[in-house]
Every structure is written in C-alpha cells, then in structure tokens.
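Notebook B, p. 112. Complex prediction, attempt 2.
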Amino acid sequence: MKLYNSLTRQKEDFKTYEEGKVRMYTCGPTVYHFAHIGNLRSYIMEDVLEKYLVYSGYDVNRVMNITDVGHLSSDADTGEDKMLKGAKREKKTVMEIAKFYTDAFFADCDKLNIKIPNTVQPATGCIPEFIEMVEGLIEKDFAYIAGGNVYFDTSKLKEYYVFNNHDAEDLAVGVREGVEEDTNKRNKTDFVLWFTKSKFDDQELKWDSPWGIGYPGWHIECSAISMKYLGDRLDLHCGGIDNAFPHHTNEIAQSEAYIGHPWCTHWFHVLHLNTSGGKMSKSKGEFLTVSLLEEKGYNPIVYRFFCLQSHYRKSLVFSWDSLDNAAQAYDKLIKKISTFEKEGEVDMAVVEEYRAKFNEVMGNDLNTSLGITAIYDVVKAKTNGATKRFLLDDYDRVLSLDLLKAADSVKEEKEETNEEDAYILEMIAKRAEAKKAKNYAEADRIRNELAAKGITLKDSSQGTTYTKA
Ligand SMILES: [Zn+2]
C-alpha cells in the first residue's frame, strides 16, 4: 500500500524490515481523565490502518503504552503533572486514577470497535528498562546530569527537528511562551530523561535509580517499551499530530542515539478534531466523550462512521449537526442493507472486481472516505443480496461499522413487528365476527386481552384501527 510518511513528507510504498510482518507502535493515552472524542479519532484511524494491513495479508504485532507516570501538562518538561492533577481532583491515589481511566479508555475503544493492541504496557511496569536506556545514553555521552535531573543533549544530534514541516502550532507546544524555563538545560530543546528534583513535593510514584529517587520523563517510555517488545527496528509508529513535536521528535532523538542506527521507518499521524472554537481539548467548551454521545442518544459506531467519512490527514470539524447527518446516513444505509436476501450464491467474479476497487482506495494512503463510497457502490451493484452481504462483511473487517450486525437486528425487529401486527389483525377479525354473532362478552374479552398487551383498539365507521403503547 501507499502511505504518507510524516518523516519523509511524502506518500511512499509501505515497506517492512521483515517480509510480511509489521512491527507497529502506538502512543497510548495518559490515564488521568476520560479520552475526548478528538483523542479517539486517532485511535479509530490507527485501528483502520492496523486492520487494513491485516486485510492486505500482513502479520501485525502492535504494542501500545499506557502513560501512568511522568506526563506534564505542557508535553515538554513544564507545567503540572497530569496524573497528580487527576488524583488531586478526585481525591484518589495516582494508581487508582490510572486503573479507573485505563478501564474507561478500553470501554470506549470497545464501543467504537477499536481492537486492543497485542501488547498494552503501562509505563510504571517498565522502570528498569527506562533506567537502562538512560544509563546507555549517559554512557554514549548523549545525556548529562544537571541539578539532580538527567537531560538529553539535543546539540549532539545531526538533526533534531525531524518533523519540522508540521504546522507552527505543533512546533510551538514545546517552547511555548510563558512557561517557566528550566535553567539546568544546556539547550532550549533538551528534555528530561529522569527527574529526581521534582517541583512536586507530593509526587506519589518514585523509584530508586543511579541518580537518586525519582521518576522518568514522559518520552523515554515509548522508546523503551517499543524496543522491549518490538526490538530496535520499528516499521510503523502512530499517534495524533500533536505528538509529532516534541514527543515523537524526542523519541527519535533518544532511540537513535541509543541504538546507533535508524529506528522507525514510517510515521503515521492523524490530524486534529476541531470544534468551531478550534482544537478540541478537555478544558475548554463541552467535554466531548463517548459517554456524552450515548447520553444524547447516538450509537458510538455513528461517530466512527463520521470519522471515516474524512481523510486522516485533514483536520475534521465536529458539530452536533454533522454528527446528526452521519447518524441519518448510517441508519439509511443499514436499513437498505437489511433488505438484502441472505440466500443465493456468492458471485466471486463480482467480489473480486469490487474488492479490487476497495483496495485501490484504501491502499492509497488509507482513503477511508472513498472506502465509505465503496460501501455505497456495493449497495447499488447489480448483483444478488448474498454477494453484496459477502462484500460488505469483507470491507467491514477493515472499517468495523457493524454493517451486517446492525442490518440483521433491524431485520429481526421488522420481522417481530410484522408477526405482532399479523396477530393483532387476526384478533380484530375474530372480534368483528363475535360482534356480528352478538357475542359481546367474547368481543370484550378480545379487547381486554389486547389492552393487557398495551394495544388499544379504536372503532369507527371505517372499521377498527389500533395503536401500540
Ligand atoms: Zn509515545
């Protein structure tokens, strides 16, 4: 397949180190709060990418971290500790907060049909690996100790700004104005590998290290966790675009300094979900979560459908109106699919023809919007229901929109309704006969029997009609 690579800034043929095998790494959530639907857009698109690679015949081994320590609110080394902030807000311990929001994250993923990666590793479970890597970086003279902390020295690199064509907003995150400057740093872009001098006196999670009791910086966890499970050659690294700098930039810096050769070939970044007010965040505007969508009566899969309607490399604007449009389109599509006959022989020539079209668009930088169009093409195709259902099921291995499952439950509902209606009409006819025979007791009995089931009869000169409760 062809996939845009943020590192080379062009669409490339996707290649792996080992034939047929993909070593894929994803930056997981910082579990101090619920994920907002903007965070989840990235996980949805990464899920589609993973499933498309599997669909194309690759064996994918995917690893994700869970950040439960070390992530400060600026994404660089300043601001508040996110986990500590969450714990204080909810008057719980950091580990309680981590457990609660990790579970909440996977519950959201489940509702959105996002597959859980093969390995999920909380950062707090890999402290010895982080220490080993920091020691290695000091040995290789890529790191220094200052004021009790260990810093990565970015001046030792040939190139630091590897993603430097990304928009200025992203580049600015790490060097934002107004945040206190760390005077221990030799260069403005240096970053902390290990903290012992924390400005948080009440830091709950601390470990012993060669540099004193402390805790790891945020960036080191992804490099160390990915190497632990996937080795020192990575094929594909994913994340939201706001991770490109400083997080991914720093991951590359420390990983390549440590192993001494190129690390990850392919970088996949999903653009932001915006609201009319700008980039979505947890702190401004409505806090948009999957639970909120459900409270408002939306099927979470409709949100997935909404995300798939646009390309991952474009920012997407969310509004309730646009979600309503997606919901209507999805319901209409499902109703249409529910009319397809299951019986009949699958026409494999048609299947191959349409599969090729699906591959053409999905294999071209994961064009999910045209992937959705491909669903409509199948719906309109001149072939039998069984072939259409076969194809929709096939596409859904990648898109995961519950196409047949939802259609079958619509069909079942319809059949149940039809059965019930037939029963009521039969009872109405019996009652009319009883009335004709002047058996009013029987006619009343039938009326009462229906009333007990919530069905109200109404007689008029045109005959008897009914309403259901
Ligand atoms: Zn990461």
